[in-house]
Amino acid sequence: MPTNTRENGFETLIVDWLVNQNHYEQGNNDDYNQEYAIDETRLFRFLLDTQKPYMDELRILESETEKKKFLDRLSKKLSDSGVVEVLRKGFKYKHRTLEMYMVLPSEGNHDAQILYDKNIFSVTRQLQYSKEYGRLALDLAVFINGLPIMTFELKNQFTKQNVSDAEGQYKKDRSPSELIFSFKRCLVHFAVDDSEIRMCTELKGEKSFFLPFNKGFNDGAGNPPNPGGIKTDYLWKQILTKPELSNILENYAQVIEEKDEDTGKKSYKQIFPRYHQLHVVKALLADAARDGAGHRYLIQHSAGSGKSNSIAWLAHQLVTLKNADGQVFDTIIVVTDRINLDKQIKDTIRQFMQVSSTVGWAKDSGELRQLLDDGKRVIITIVHKFQFILNDISDAYKHKKFAIIIDEAHSSQNGSLSAKMNIVLSGNVYNDGDELEDKINSLIEGKRMAQNASYFAFTATPKNKTLEMFGKTIVDENGNPILNEDGTKKSEPHYVYTMKQAIEEHFILDVLKYYTPYQSYYHIVKTAADDPLFDKKRAQSVLRSYVENQPYAVKEKAGIIVEHFHNSVKSKIGGQGRAMVVTSSIQRAIEYYYAITEALQARRSQYRAIVAFSGDANYNGQTLNEAKINGFPSSQIEKKFKHNPYRILVVADKFQTGYDEPLLHTMYVDKGLADIKAVQTLSRLNRCYSGKNDVFVLDFANDPADIQQAFERYYKTTVLSGETDANKLNDLIDTMEPMQVYTQDQIDTFVGLYLGNAPREELDPIIDVCVEAYKALDLEDQIAFKSSAKTFVRTYNFLSSILPYGSHNWEKLSIFLNLLVAKLPRPQSEEDDVRKIIEDVDLESYRVVAQDTIAIRLADEDAEIDAIPVKTDVGIPVPEMDTLTHIIATFHDIWGNCDWTDEDKIKRQIADLPDIVKNDEAYQNAMRYSDAQNARDESDRAVFEAIMKTMSSGMELYTAFQDDMRNSNNQSFKKWLLDMVFNSTYRPGGDSVHPQV
Fold first, then answer.
1. Which CATH code is given to the segment(s) 273-497?
2. Residue 478 to residues 149, 286, 720, 723, Cα–Cα distance (Å)
3. Mind listing the pLDDT tens digit for each residue in 650-673?
């Protein structure tokens, strides 16, 4: 007989493996109770085998009536709480709690192993699940102790069907009204073929959402070729083994409750780990058990990878992790920049243990110390609180072992915070009675990565500093480091789930697929009587900033935003689409907010904008903040933005990182973005949501090539090309010492006093003398000294945690310079400030034009980033001076290259105004349904809007209208124009007359 390549052959292959290799039992349809969706035979066999005294006492099997009462209550509990909770926590029936599953034993626990072996894992093929439609059957179902855990629909590419057909079968033919397919009654449903696997935890007909459960191939979707079998056999050979399925059930599977703060309505989500989540958590646990405390691990997991769940699962299991030496860690500290992660971790861990006795939230150092003293096993804190918390912890914990899980490591691992963390956790703090040398030694030793703490650093966008601190050295097949020509090592993350794979697997959306750059064109005129000289390179940047930030330019772009939002965004995501406007400054955000609000009101829009920025700002003589402008507290911005009428969020350095709003569909960018900032900002759009099929970026400020370069760094694996050269510190010292701002005696005296807790009266005089010496330097030396000092402090703080050696001189100089730099005044140039150029020019014309929408394609290759730069060639660049006339001409070559109107444009614009106004819908309605004054108001408004639109081809008409120029008869041009348009178009009741100009 030839090989059975049909679907039933695929089914036989899986079942044979589970039964013969994994020691499952094979069930049949006679064992299955369709009314309750339970393998009744195995359920009662398990209960009688493990808890017969209770079964006898409860008389469950005494009669069919008693058995039905039991099954009715069990069925209700399964529907209410779910199969996961029933298996994990047991089932209360009358006065007894029946265990429905025996947990995995700890190593060496013989009695627990005997109990665990009594669990019945079974698989039934062609399960006839429907009581009403008896012939309906699904391909496979897996049960534990008679309760359904997984269902499977199998397809076979040899018979020209694939995983999409299996998914479609679940959506079209497997009704959620059938008990085995109803929410929470079964843990997960798998669509499987011989190449790919997809899973769904809640069947909802056509709305069922399936996620890939694939390993990934070439850093993308799919599975690699399997030299030992079928591509997808890891599902039954690894995931469905008894120990692994038990591990998932006990440590990962859960039902999450989510509550709407406004309505109080609760919703539930069933969680099953994705393959990459299961892989990374298991791998990190194995690494930690093998290595013990004192190691570092970097995980580059893309946005959309489910990082929060991965962190929660890791934290929960690190609590109980043991190796041959006993408990691996005493305390797990999670450092995050997301406040909501606290609740998420608590909700996750609550599924597995008593959260009140396990998890604590530290808002300050006193709380952290108390939590440690109380024996809390998991402590969560926000990164910006953590550095202050560390200040006040004693050395009482140096004998404890810590696991530090860092969420978004690039933002929480600056040099000074890292050093402070290491000092505290290692307990290497100096005592007041120590000699200066001993204090310095304690500081040097303490700054190194603490040997009693392991670091698990998660990030989607690893910086060079993050890779050098937490990454692993790249080695060859023999385990030897691969060295660069200069002998330095390369570093890479320990585990990677790439942006490429997340996009291809539809965990996140591709934010670069529909990218529309806008090009601005300007025409400026020289107003200066003479022709002054300016640095032409810097002048171009200043001039562009000047024209882009003109009120008219902001209004023009605000109009584009509102028009695009109404035409292309509001109807997205089932009519829930929202947009974000990213601005370059608080001042610009406020201007955009008012311009967008005005544009929304002008078109009678039902929607409103929100502005978000930190602190107070002076705007047109007023002190404003978010709450004053928005009319509600800052704390409510995220909540308000989820509900109408708020649809457009205008931001200045807020909500560009860590903000997760799935309804965000479009981003309008009017701010220069580069590297990580570009990736983080645009990635706010990438969250998936039901009905969210695409996202858009409209960019007024950036070159698509720069955005492409930024994303390519983090599209696949990010590799560090080398190591930071510690000798650069000596180069910086060689730059500073000849300037004689400080002496070694001053450093030694100052550091001795400082570490000895001397009063400030003794410290400041030393620093102040050095400040005066700095002021006496010429401008170029001031710039060189201050730049070198800042670079030294920043670089040393980082290197001190990873170098295998220390230097007393470096440590003391770092302490001294850190405080000196804070007092050094900013170098002031005596040369002509190039910003004065804006006093000598006027904007004459402005136009912003949409370019073709493009899909930015990213290179399918790993990206190398350079080691931390230590700049030693500081100084003042030599300006290249040119006349204002030539600078403007060059500016027009770059930014003014479009067709402007002819000299008769103003006459033509004026002649066109009545026709434009008479067709204005609001003006027509006012004539029909309102009085003359309201009609006049609408006419004047329409005139102003029409004049604003003429500015794209010239500022003359706008300037004349705004300046309200008068002729020789002292007649107001503005009044004449408004009267002319209204008198030539107005007719009470509508049907405006044909204008005669």
1. 3.40.50.300
2. 43, 22, 21, 22
3. 999 888 877 889 999 999 999 999
